[in-house]
Amino acid sequence: MFNKLRPVWLVAQRELRDQFRDWRVLAPMSILTLGFPFLMNEFAKQTVDFLNQYNANLILDRLVPFSIMIIGFFPITVALVVALESFVGEKERGTIEPLLTAPFDDWQLYFGKLLVGAITPLIASYISIALYLFMVTRQDLNMPAPTVMVQLFLLTTAHAILMVSAAIVISVQSTTVKAANLLASFIVIPVAVLMQGEAVMLFWGNETVLWFGIAGVLIISLLLIRVGIAHFEREYLLGREIDTFSFKWAFKKFWSDFIDGAVSVREWYGRVLGSSLKRMIPAVVLMVLVAFFSIWLSHKWVVTNVSEIIANASTENIELIEENLGELPDFASMSGHFSAPFLFLNNTRSMVVIFLAGMVSFSVLGVLFYMINVALIGGVYAMFELLGLSPLPIFAAGVLPHGIFELPALLFGSAMVLYIGAVLVTPQRGKSIGEVIIALIADWFKVFVGLIVPLLAVAALIEAYVTPVILQSVMGG
DSSP assignment of 150-218, as one string? Predict the structure, then answer.
């Protein structure tokens, strides 16, 4: 085991020597690491003085954790330059050939670069956070709880691994340092948006959800590392000299994969779409299991938590709930408010959102959105049980008529997103990552156009004009 890890350390040592010789990286990183905590501390003091006028104690308690998260983020953004140049920079300097001809495995070269790319910004972030915490202890500011401190350090580590692993993937796929640096915005901006959501969790004090956020970031980081190793080829690095992108080539490639030689609609449905559906059978089976788990989990959560809330509710609140239950809506008139085109566009938009979320997260967010959609069934079913209604007839009348079309559309669309993530992290020899992504997008469009859109169209018609009438007859009875 040690013999296999020794080349990783040798590559890391070589990378460290190169970094410490480059003052253009060390100088801004040192200034930001040692100077930014003072700026953030002054910001915290001014914010405290302002909020003390309004007794905003809850916000004050969350100000220091928020500052720690921001302080840990900025050194990573500067050190990102090192990861972006890890492979493409050596290629421009003409030093990559001796490295690639060394008797090391591809994963050893990759992890050597990744190790230094992640450790350097993490050390800078930890030093910056420690300096800020030292200043906090000498002022009238509340220190975060130990659990929150652990979460903040794990978040900083997860952000560093996520950004560095993405930067190295870009470095492998780019042909110039300029192109790699331009693509850095696709790393910094999404992580900055992600941190806004994490900041909301911090201010709300929702530590449980923050644990899930940390786990999600780490999962995406590991998948990014897997993608980098899966698509790392020495011949690709040495062979590509010019980085060009042709929209015409991309569209021709997409259309060729979408049609796949079919000369008629019948052949396309029978051979092309059938082949795509056959490839995603394991993903469909897995998503069925995920659906049952999500329904069971949401049902259990509602029964456990909402029943406790009802048990502790006052008599006035229970009477108010009973009065509202007596005012049932006129389901027959719902067809005038929710038209079939509206329902169709809404459901189609949801499928596109699941696809886009899955593409930027290697299926993680896409599967999460799928679980949330399916979990509503178990949650609403449990609510009907707690309110004393008979849920089975209601669901049979209000969900099944259009659900037999809509739920399979959701299932196949989400399974396709899961399939895309699985293929992206699988080695594809002889294909660039761009060719793989275009082929996967073509596969998704096959399923979307050939199966999901027709199912959602039929579901929208039934949901708008049939389901309300059936549900009205059941509820009226």
Answer: HHHHHHHHHHHHHHHHHHHHHHHH-SSHHHHHHTTHHHHHHHHHHHHHHHHHHHHT-HHHHHHHHHHHH
- Residue finishing a domain among 191, 211, 239: 239
pLDDT digits (tens, 9 = 90+) for 420-470: 988 887 777 667 777 888 999 999 999 999 999 999 999 999 988 888 888
- 253 and 226 share a domain? no
Give the integer Cα–Cα distance in Å for 234 and 246: 24
CB-based contact 193:363 (threshold 8 Å): no
As to burial, measured by CB atoms within 10 angstroms (0-12 exposed, 13-18 middle, 19+ buried), residue 445 is: middle
**Number of compact structural domains in the chain:** 2
Collapsing DSSP states into helix, strand and coil, what is residue 126?
helix
What is the span of the domain harbouring residue 8?
A: 2-239
Identify the domain boundary among 173, 205, 239.
239
Indicate whether 416 and 280 sit together in one domain: yes
Q: Using CA atoms, how far apart are residues 409 and 352, in angstroms rounded to an integer? A: 12
Report pLDDT digits (tens) over 126-157.
999 999 888 888 776 677 888 888 888 998 99
